[in-house]
Amino acid sequence: MPIKKLIHKAETLIEALPFIKNFYGKTIVIKYGGNAMVSEDLKKTFALDVIMMKYIGINPIIVHGGGPQIGKTLEMFGIQSKFVDGQRVTSKEMIGVVEMVLGGKINQEIVSQINQQGGSAVGITGKDGDLIQAKRFRKVKICPETNRPEIIDLGLVGDIKKINPGILETLDRDKYIPVIAPIGRGEEGETLNINADFVASKIASALKAEKLLLMTDIEGVKDKKHKLISELNRKEAEKLVRTKVIKDGMIPKVQCCLDALKAGVSKAHIIDGRIKHSLLLEIFTEEGIGTQIVEK
Questions:
Q1: Phi and psi dihedrals of 178, rounded to 5?
Q2: Do 13 and 47 contact (CB within 8 A), yes or no?
Q3: Would you say residue 291 lies in a domain?
Q4: Cβ neighbours for 8, distance < 8 A, ≥ 6 positions apart
Q5: Residue-range definition of the domain harbouring residue 84
Q6: I need a labelling partner for 80 at 20 to 30 A (CA). Which of 171, 177, 199, 231 fits?
Q7: Could you read off the pLDDT of 72-91 as tens digits, one per residue?
Q8: Is 294 part of a structural domain of the chain?
């Protein structure tokens, strides 16, 4: 290999040194989803990124989604999906499939990928160690006919009451990478399906994580001219929501970030998981690749 390329590699490592020093011993919660969970190449690079983080002293915690995979499996069983404002109504006949796909198939595939590449991952759901205590989510909407609020029953969809991080602290002490399926225990012991962004935000909040990283299939938050915004503070983000520059599916993602910041998480990021090594690029470079959200 030409000496110039070797020098460039060395310079890249040196550039990352202050970030490695700054994040050593810190916890970073990653919501893993989108195309990064589908592309074989991206799945491998994600696993390598997480393993590297662990080896240099960062404590990554992974929360994964799986909406498209759940949809396909439900179709195979002849079960039709219904959505309300982007949330899947989860019936009793669905929840077994949801748990099988999230807590079984997807979770174990991620764990296997990390372990195959040389890491040490352990797969759990929010029911393990009583990690996620939840209640049934009740969505309130204004009825256009009566102009009065009405409760929309989403079935076995969960709203997080409490995070008990003991199992995560145990896994960290034993040098394992936790991989969490977004399923929780309800007030009556029932299994509840919970949005993975919300789970990642609440876990980051409970652990006072250094960073919350939400991986998506877009560049990040964009302005009204559709240009990427590299950094936002709370006031700027709230204004963009009010003026409907931030809209649709980006609203709950930004809200998850703001909630985590309010709870003591240092920084939150919405990044493009379609880019190889997106985690390392966001964490270990000055420029980053997505939208960083800070309190002030």
A1: -75, 135
A2: no
A3: no
A4: none
A5: 3-286
A6: 199
A7: 999 898 888 888 777 788 88
A8: no
